[in-house]
Amino acid sequence: MTATTLVLTTEDARGLVPMADAIELVEASYRDAATQNLPRRRIHSPLSHPEEERWSMLNVIAGVVPSQGVIALRVDAAHLAKPVRNGQERLEFRGDFSGFVLVWDVTTNELLGIVHDHAVSALRVGATTAVAAKYLAKNDARTLGILGSGNQAAAQVEALVAVRPNIRNLKVFSPSIANRRRFAEAMAAKFNILAEPVDSAEQAVRDSDIVVAATNATDPILFGRWLAPGAHIVGMKSSTKFYPQRELDDECAQRADLIVVNLKAQLEIDDQAELMEPIRKGLVAWEDIHELADVCSGRVAGRASDSQITYHNNNGGMGNQFAAVCKYALDVARAKKVGTELPMDLFMTRRHGDASAP
Questions:
Q1: Is the pTM of this model over 0.70?
Q2: Distance (Å, rounded) from C-alpha 256 to C-alpha 272?
Q3: Which of 57, 150, 159, 231 sits 20 to 30 Å CA-CA off 212?
């Protein structure tokens, strides 16, 4: 029990949780049979704007990890627009935004902390990719192909190198020549691997043991016909009905011997096209899609041979990810005396004999 609620800004939180620790924490949260997650929900409200259509988005993600003694709620408020660039509609954020993870002690209901989510978002996505790769990627995977060159792509490389240390080659494609060169140089220097910028998505995918799509694409850019036997593919497009999008084509799912998602319910709630479309076409059966928690717990077997093609659909944020990572960040911050402490009672209702419900 503490007397304060600790607030961590993005700057406070950055670097508090090493990737290796994040992977271990996230895996443990998925392995906990008592972990519960609410499917992510988003509200999009039209805004009046003189130049373009805009919407206010409220993003809500919640979960509880009893073994780690923590409940978490991520909530974001941001403005979105859908501009057309180079003949293609894109989803873009406008202006400043507000995003927090609230972390409660599951035993006392005390609010342990409030963590600005920007510093931990790519970290927990990368950690989740790595957890799945431990079970789905070949043990001796050596070549990683990645589509994208932003923060999410960087976290994916860091996480995958951590769980598959035999990775020695990285191929990166981004439409911007300068960006893919910059990214390759940074990854080579950071992880002591051979990193090569390539001229097409196909070059990045062909003959790669692990392939990751981490782009802003709206339509498929990763095609199943490019996959080598034994490849492990990762898609992270967290599509919604408000803005349908995908990076992987139907053939990726059709060729996969094993498909694992973070949460099956999210596929239906958001009608996520990367898997819902092949299901509707009869290319994939609903019952053949498995959840990451079942793989981590051993209820579903992971990769069975080096020739299998495996597919992890990292399909949206889950509360257990934020619970595990942010609780750890708060513990480290307290030990290092980082952040802003506020009186706990600002956030608590004490009963004092009142038996009424919340």
A1: yes
A2: 17
A3: 57
